[in-house]
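Hey, weird one. I pasted the Gamma carbonic anhydrase family protein sequence into the form twice and got a warning about non-standard characters only the second time. First submission, copied straight from the form history:
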Amino acid sequence: MIYSFKDYIPVVHESSFVHPLAAITGNVIIGKNCYIGPGAAIRGDWGQIILEDGVNVQENCTVHMFPGKSITLKESAHVGHGAIIHGANLGRNCLIGMNSVIMDDAEIGDESIVGAMAFVKAETKIPKRSLVVGNPAKVVKEVSDDMIAWKTKGTQLYQQLPKDCHASLKEVEPLREVPKKMKIQEGAYDTLRDFMKQ
């Protein structure tokens, strides 16, 4: 669901995937290999929103801003399920945890990780490689090389997902019985705790 607004038409690179149940409106630019999940709303009605290459905005996220503001989600930014980005800029290869809220004029530094359900107040400046948690959110430590390696691997899965969706996602009628030889998907990614044990 892609909508023009006051003659602004979203720009979406052909390698990216926008789920049909997402809503992209107005002055939005989506780079290469981006994934936009169902229920996501990216509203460029009052300002410009740029998603650089490799960004993912997962299910039920909202990206918006106050009038006249413009924001950028830099390369490989990873926005977890249900997060809200309202007028904030996200650094390169950062992770925004599920159900987090990042408020106006906040800046999340490159390779920072914002924990699930964190609340980042307006105008907060998070330094690069910071681990941020809580409500209000606070920097609790520096992101380690191992943590950013884990984050980067997870984002790479989302950068592959647009190609997989273009190739295989289609609307179907449901089966009425479980097939006898139904396979379970293979594990392709570990939790941070399991990753750190390796």
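That's the output from the first submission. The warning seems to come from a hidden character in my clipboard, not from the data itself. The chain has a mean pLDDT of 94.
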